[in-house]
Amino acid sequence: MVDVQHWLSALPPLVIYLIVAGVIGVESMGIPLPGEIVLVSTALLAATGVIEPEWVAGAAAFGAIVGDSFGYAIGRRGGRPLLERLGRRFPRHLGPAHLARAEQSFARHGVWAVFFGRFVALLRILAGPLAGALRVPYRRFLLANAAGGLVWAFGTTYLLFSVGRAAEHWLKDISWAGLALAVLAGLGSTWWLRRRARRMSEATAVPAGAEPLRAGTD
Protein backbone atom coordinates (compact mmCIF):
# COMPACT_ATOMS: atom_id res chain seq x y z
CA MET A 1 0.00 0.00 0.00
CA VAL A 2 2.96 2.31 0.66
CA ASP A 3 4.10 1.71 -2.93
CA VAL A 4 0.63 2.59 -4.22
CA GLN A 5 0.61 5.80 -2.20
CA HIS A 6 4.09 6.75 -3.43
CA TRP A 7 3.09 6.09 -7.05
CA LEU A 8 -0.10 8.15 -6.70
CA SER A 9 1.73 11.08 -5.14
CA ALA A 10 3.62 11.64 -8.41
CA LEU A 11 0.39 12.14 -10.38
CA PRO A 12 -1.67 15.33 -10.84
CA PRO A 13 -4.63 15.56 -8.40
CA LEU A 14 -7.25 15.27 -11.16
CA VAL A 15 -5.69 12.05 -12.40
CA ILE A 16 -5.70 10.67 -8.85
CA TYR A 17 -9.41 11.41 -8.43
CA LEU A 18 -10.15 9.75 -11.77
CA ILE A 19 -8.15 6.68 -10.75
CA VAL A 20 -10.08 6.44 -7.48
CA ALA A 21 -13.44 6.66 -9.26
CA GLY A 22 -12.34 4.31 -12.03
CA VAL A 23 -10.85 1.53 -9.89
CA ILE A 24 -13.73 1.53 -7.41
CA GLY A 25 -16.26 1.77 -10.23
CA VAL A 26 -14.85 -1.22 -12.12
CA GLU A 27 -14.59 -3.22 -8.89
CA SER A 28 -18.25 -2.48 -8.15
CA MET A 29 -19.21 -3.78 -11.59
CA GLY A 30 -17.99 -7.24 -10.55
CA ILE A 31 -14.30 -7.24 -11.55
CA PRO A 32 -11.91 -7.90 -8.62
CA LEU A 33 -9.71 -4.80 -8.24
CA PRO A 34 -8.05 -3.29 -5.12
CA GLY A 35 -10.63 -0.55 -4.64
CA GLU A 36 -10.26 -0.33 -0.89
CA ILE A 37 -6.46 -0.19 -1.11
CA VAL A 38 -6.72 2.73 -3.54
CA LEU A 39 -9.17 4.54 -1.25
CA VAL A 40 -7.02 4.00 1.85
CA SER A 41 -3.87 5.12 0.02
CA THR A 42 -5.44 8.29 -1.34
CA ALA A 43 -7.08 9.15 1.99
CA LEU A 44 -3.69 8.96 3.71
CA LEU A 45 -2.18 10.93 0.84
CA ALA A 46 -4.80 13.64 1.43
CA ALA A 47 -3.58 13.91 5.03
CA THR A 48 -0.24 15.13 3.66
CA GLY A 49 -1.95 17.97 1.77
CA VAL A 50 -1.18 16.66 -1.72
CA ILE A 51 -4.88 16.20 -2.58
CA GLU A 52 -8.22 17.21 -1.05
CA PRO A 53 -10.15 14.67 1.08
CA GLU A 54 -13.57 15.84 -0.10
CA TRP A 55 -12.60 15.14 -3.71
CA VAL A 56 -11.21 11.72 -2.78
CA ALA A 57 -14.42 10.83 -0.95
CA GLY A 58 -16.60 12.23 -3.71
CA ALA A 59 -14.72 10.30 -6.39
CA ALA A 60 -14.95 7.10 -4.36
CA ALA A 61 -18.69 7.53 -3.73
CA PHE A 62 -19.31 8.34 -7.40
CA GLY A 63 -17.38 5.28 -8.54
CA ALA A 64 -19.15 3.04 -6.03
CA ILE A 65 -22.68 4.20 -6.88
CA VAL A 66 -22.25 4.34 -10.66
CA GLY A 67 -20.22 1.13 -10.79
CA ASP A 68 -22.80 -0.77 -8.75
CA SER A 69 -25.56 0.55 -11.01
CA PHE A 70 -23.72 -0.68 -14.11
CA GLY A 71 -23.11 -3.97 -12.33
CA TYR A 72 -26.83 -4.19 -11.57
CA ALA A 73 -27.70 -3.66 -15.25
CA ILE A 74 -25.13 -6.25 -16.34
CA GLY A 75 -26.39 -8.77 -13.81
CA ARG A 76 -30.03 -8.18 -14.75
CA ARG A 77 -29.22 -8.77 -18.41
CA GLY A 78 -26.84 -11.69 -17.98
CA GLY A 79 -28.45 -13.39 -14.99
CA ARG A 80 -26.84 -16.07 -12.90
CA PRO A 81 -24.99 -17.65 -15.87
CA LEU A 82 -22.97 -14.43 -16.11
CA LEU A 83 -22.00 -14.69 -12.44
CA GLU A 84 -20.98 -18.30 -12.96
CA ARG A 85 -18.79 -17.29 -15.89
CA LEU A 86 -17.16 -14.61 -13.73
CA GLY A 87 -16.61 -17.29 -11.09
CA ARG A 88 -14.77 -19.47 -13.57
CA ARG A 89 -12.69 -16.50 -14.66
CA PHE A 90 -11.87 -15.35 -11.11
CA PRO A 91 -12.18 -18.55 -9.00
CA ARG A 92 -10.18 -17.16 -6.07
CA HIS A 93 -12.55 -14.21 -5.68
CA LEU A 94 -15.88 -15.23 -7.23
CA GLY A 95 -15.95 -19.02 -7.14
CA PRO A 96 -19.06 -21.15 -6.45
CA ALA A 97 -18.65 -20.93 -2.67
CA HIS A 98 -18.36 -17.12 -2.80
CA LEU A 99 -21.41 -16.83 -5.03
CA ALA A 100 -23.43 -19.13 -2.77
CA ARG A 101 -22.59 -17.05 0.30
CA ALA A 102 -23.49 -13.82 -1.50
CA GLU A 103 -26.82 -15.29 -2.66
CA GLN A 104 -27.61 -16.37 0.90
CA SER A 105 -26.89 -12.84 2.13
CA PHE A 106 -29.35 -11.38 -0.37
CA ALA A 107 -31.97 -14.03 0.34
CA ARG A 108 -31.79 -13.41 4.08
CA HIS A 109 -31.12 -9.66 4.32
CA GLY A 110 -32.48 -8.19 1.07
CA VAL A 111 -31.23 -4.71 0.22
CA TRP A 112 -29.43 -4.47 3.58
CA ALA A 113 -26.91 -6.83 1.97
CA VAL A 114 -26.20 -4.05 -0.54
CA PHE A 115 -25.66 -1.44 2.20
CA PHE A 116 -23.49 -3.54 4.50
CA GLY A 117 -21.92 -5.31 1.54
CA ARG A 118 -19.97 -2.13 0.80
CA PHE A 119 -17.91 -2.96 3.93
CA VAL A 120 -17.26 -6.61 2.94
CA ALA A 121 -14.80 -7.41 0.14
CA LEU A 122 -16.90 -10.20 -1.39
CA LEU A 123 -20.21 -8.33 -1.47
CA ARG A 124 -18.52 -5.08 -2.51
CA ILE A 125 -17.65 -6.83 -5.79
CA LEU A 126 -20.84 -8.87 -6.23
CA ALA A 127 -23.58 -6.61 -4.85
CA GLY A 128 -24.49 -4.90 -8.11
CA PRO A 129 -24.40 -7.87 -10.51
CA LEU A 130 -26.04 -10.18 -7.99
CA ALA A 131 -28.85 -7.73 -7.19
CA GLY A 132 -29.57 -7.42 -10.91
CA ALA A 133 -29.45 -11.19 -11.49
CA LEU A 134 -31.85 -11.77 -8.58
CA ARG A 135 -34.21 -9.04 -9.85
CA VAL A 136 -34.02 -6.85 -6.76
CA PRO A 137 -36.22 -3.77 -7.46
CA TYR A 138 -33.89 -1.08 -8.77
CA ARG A 139 -35.25 1.77 -6.64
CA ARG A 140 -34.63 -0.19 -3.44
CA PHE A 141 -31.24 -1.25 -4.72
CA LEU A 142 -30.28 2.31 -5.64
CA LEU A 143 -31.27 3.67 -2.21
CA ALA A 144 -29.21 1.05 -0.36
CA ASN A 145 -26.38 1.36 -2.88
CA ALA A 146 -26.17 5.15 -2.58
CA ALA A 147 -26.38 5.09 1.22
CA GLY A 148 -23.70 2.41 1.53
CA GLY A 149 -21.43 4.06 -1.03
CA LEU A 150 -21.63 7.47 0.66
CA VAL A 151 -21.08 6.13 4.19
CA TRP A 152 -18.22 3.90 3.08
CA ALA A 153 -16.47 6.50 0.91
CA PHE A 154 -16.78 9.54 3.17
CA GLY A 155 -16.44 7.57 6.41
CA THR A 156 -13.29 5.76 5.32
CA THR A 157 -11.73 8.85 3.76
CA TYR A 158 -12.29 11.22 6.67
CA LEU A 159 -11.44 8.59 9.28
CA LEU A 160 -8.03 7.94 7.70
CA PHE A 161 -7.53 11.61 6.83
CA SER A 162 -8.14 12.57 10.49
CA VAL A 163 -5.90 9.81 11.80
CA GLY A 164 -3.16 10.80 9.36
CA ARG A 165 -3.33 14.47 10.35
CA ALA A 166 -3.38 13.58 14.05
CA ALA A 167 -0.41 11.28 13.59
CA GLU A 168 1.57 13.99 11.82
CA HIS A 169 0.78 16.52 14.57
CA TRP A 170 1.41 14.26 17.54
CA LEU A 171 4.48 12.59 16.13
CA LYS A 172 6.11 16.01 16.01
CA ASP A 173 5.41 16.34 19.74
CA ILE A 174 6.35 12.68 20.40
CA SER A 175 2.94 12.16 21.97
CA TRP A 176 2.58 8.44 21.37
CA ALA A 177 -0.24 8.08 23.89
CA GLY A 178 -2.23 10.78 22.12
CA LEU A 179 -1.63 9.12 18.77
CA ALA A 180 -2.84 5.78 20.12
CA LEU A 181 -5.99 7.39 21.52
CA ALA A 182 -6.69 9.13 18.20
CA VAL A 183 -6.33 5.87 16.29
CA LEU A 184 -8.61 4.01 18.71
CA ALA A 185 -11.22 6.77 18.64
CA GLY A 186 -11.22 6.85 14.86
CA LEU A 187 -11.46 3.09 14.47
CA GLY A 188 -14.34 3.00 16.94
CA SER A 189 -16.50 5.09 14.61
CA THR A 190 -16.57 2.27 12.01
CA TRP A 191 -16.36 -0.72 14.37
CA TRP A 192 -20.10 -1.31 14.50
CA LEU A 193 -20.53 -1.36 10.72
CA ARG A 194 -17.62 -3.75 10.27
CA ARG A 195 -18.91 -6.01 13.05
CA ARG A 196 -22.45 -6.02 11.67
CA ALA A 197 -21.25 -6.81 8.16
CA ARG A 198 -19.01 -9.63 9.40
CA ARG A 199 -21.84 -11.21 11.39
CA MET A 200 -24.09 -11.02 8.35
CA SER A 201 -21.47 -12.78 6.25
CA GLU A 202 -20.90 -15.51 8.87
CA ALA A 203 -24.60 -16.06 9.44
CA THR A 204 -25.19 -16.74 5.77
CA ALA A 205 -22.23 -19.06 5.16
CA VAL A 206 -23.22 -22.05 3.00
CA PRO A 207 -21.90 -25.55 3.80
CA ALA A 208 -19.93 -27.27 1.07
CA GLY A 209 -22.25 -28.81 -1.51
CA ALA A 210 -25.32 -26.93 -0.31
CA GLU A 211 -27.65 -25.28 -2.82
CA PRO A 212 -27.97 -21.50 -2.47
CA LEU A 213 -31.34 -19.90 -1.88
CA ARG A 214 -33.02 -18.15 -4.80
CA ALA A 215 -34.47 -14.71 -4.58
CA GLY A 216 -37.89 -14.21 -6.06
CA THR A 217 -38.60 -11.97 -9.01
CA ASP A 218 -40.67 -8.81 -8.95
UniProtKB/TrEMBL annotation:
The chain crosses the membrane at residues 6-26, 141-162, 174-193. It is a multi-pass membrane protein. The keyword Iron does not apply. The keyword Lipid metabolism does not apply. GO terms for cellular component: plasma membrane. Residues 41-159 form the VTT domain. It is found in: Cell membrane. InterPro entries: DedA_domain, VTT_dom. Keywords: Cell membrane, Membrane, Transmembrane, Transmembrane helix. Belongs to the DedA family. This is Membrane protein DedA with SNARE-associated domain. It comes from Micromonospora olivasterospora.
